[in-house]
Specification:
44% of the residues lie in helices and 18% in strands. The chain is α/β, with parallel strands linked by helices. It folds into 2 domains: 24-118 and 245-313, Bordetella uptake gene, domain 1 (D-Maltodextrin-Binding Protein, domain 2, 3-Layer(aba) Sandwich), CATH 3.40.190.150; 119-218, D-Maltodextrin-Binding Protein, domain 2, CATH 3.40.190.10.
C-alpha cells in the first residue's frame, strides 16, 4: 500500500510538472521600476507569457542591495510559480561581502539561464581630474594618496566593487563616496564632486557622446561594440581585470529539471527574437542565453572573485 501511495504521489507530481504552468508565474526583480534589470525582466515576462499562455507579471522588490527580493524567492516553493531575474550584484557580490544573509547565495537558487551581460566603463570628469588613460589615473592617484574621491551607486554595488578591485590591482588609495543609486552618482561625476567612477554603460553613453565625461576603459576583456575606441582595463596595463554586469533567470533551489528545461528552451527562443536584442542593446548589453550549467559556473566564479577581494582587503558590509 505504501509503495502504491508513493507511486501515485510521484505520478501526480509528474502530471503537475507536465502541465506547468497552469496559472500566472510571478517574476521577482530586485530592481526599482524603470531600471535596467526591471526592463529585462518585463521583456522576458512578456515573451514567456506568449510562449506559455500564462501571465508572467513582474514584482519589483528593490532595496538592501537585492537581499529583500532574493530572500523572498529563496523561501518560496520550488514549483515554477516564482522566478527571479537576479544580477551580478544580488547573486554575485552580495554572497561575498555580507555576513548576515538569510540564504545561501549559491545554493538557495536554481540557475536557469544568464540572459544579458555588459561591462562597466571607467569615466572621469577631465575638468576636475586631468587624466585620459588608466596609466595617468594610477599615476595621479599615487601622487595624491587618499585625496581622490570616486563615486558609486551605493555600498556593495557593481561600481563600488569594480573600483575596489581596481584600487587593489593598481596599488592606489581613493575615497569611496556612495550615493543612493546611479542617477545621483552620475550627477556627481558630471559636476565633479566625485570626478571618477565605474559606471553602467547604458547610464553613461549619452554623457560620453555629449562630451560631459571622458571614457578611459571598459571592464570587459575585449573592447565593447558601443565604444570601440575605448580600450579595456586589461589592455591598459591591469592584465586579467574583468568585471561584467549581468541579469539572469533563477528559481528557488529544487526546481524540477523538467521545468528548468522548459524555461531554458523558452529563453533560447526569446534570445533569437528582436525584442530582447533591441532592449539589451539600448542598455549597452548583449544577449547571452547560457545553459543552466554555464550560468551556475558564472555565479560561482563571481562569488569566488569577490570573496578573494574581501579576504585581501577586509572589505565587508554588515
Amino acid at each position: 500500500m505504501k509503495r502504491l501511495m508513493i507511486a501515485a504521489m510521484l505520478a501526480c507530481a509528474s502530471i503537475a510538472q507536465a502541465a506547468w504552468p497552469d496559472r500566472p508565474v510571478r517574476i521577482v526583480a530586485p530592481d526599482a521600476p524603470g531600471g535596467g534589470g526591471d526592463i529585462i525582466a518585463r521583456v522576458l515576462g512578456d515573451e514567456l507569457g506568449k510562449i506559455f499562455g500564462q501571465p508572467f507579471p513582474v514584482e519589483n522588490r528593490p532595496g538592501a542591495g537585492g537581499r529583500i527580493a532574493l530572500e523572498n524567492v529563496a523561501h518560496s516553493a520550488p514549483d515554477g510559480y516564482t522566478l527571479l531575474v537576479g544580477n551580478a550584484g544580488s547573486n554575485g557580490i552580495n554572497g561575498a561581502i555580507y555576513r548576515d544573509l538569510p540564504y545561501d547565495t549559491v545554493n538557495a537558487f536554481t540557475p536557469i539561464s544568464q540572459i544579458v551581460q555588459g561591462p562597466n566603463i571607467l569615466v572621469v570628469n577631465r575638468t576636475e581630474l586631468p587624466v585620459a588613460t588608466v596609466a595617468e589615473l594610477i599615476a595621479y592617484a599615487k601622487a595624491h594618496p587618499g585625496e581622490l574621491n570616486y563615486g558609486s551607486g551605493g555600498p556593495g554595488s557593481s561600481a563600488h566593487l569594480s573600483m575596489e578591485l581596481f584600487k587593489q590591482r593598481a596599488g592606489i588609495d581613493m575615497q569611496h563616496v556612495p550615493f543612493r543609486g546611479a542617477s545621483p552618482m552620475t550627477l556627481a561625476v558630471v559636476q565633479g564632486e566625485t570626478p571618477v567612477a565605474f559606471m553602467n554603460l547604458s547610464n553613461v553613453l549619452p554623457l560620453i557622446r555629449r562630451g560631459e565625461v571622458t571614457p578611459i576603459a571598459v571592464t570587459s576583456l575585449q573592447r565593447w561594440h558601443d565604444v570601440p575606441d575605448v580600450p579595456t582595463v586589461d589592455e591598459s596595463g591591469l592584465k586579467g581585470f574583468e568585471t561584467i554586469a549581468w541579469n539572469g533567470l533563477l528559481a528557488p533551489a529544487g526546481l524540477p529539471r523538467e521545468i528548468v528545461d522548459k524555461l531554458h528552451a523558452a529563453v533560447v527562443k526569446i534570445a533569437q527574437e528582436p525584442n530582447l536584442k533591441e532592449k539589451a542593446e539600448l542598455l549597452g548589453n548583449e544577449v547571452v542565453a547560457s545553459t543552466p550549467e554555464e550560468f551556475a559556473a558564472r555565479i560561482r566564479a563571481d562569488v569566488a572573485k569577490w570573496r578573494a577581494l574581501v579576504d585581501a582587503t577586509g572589505l565587508r558590509l554588515d
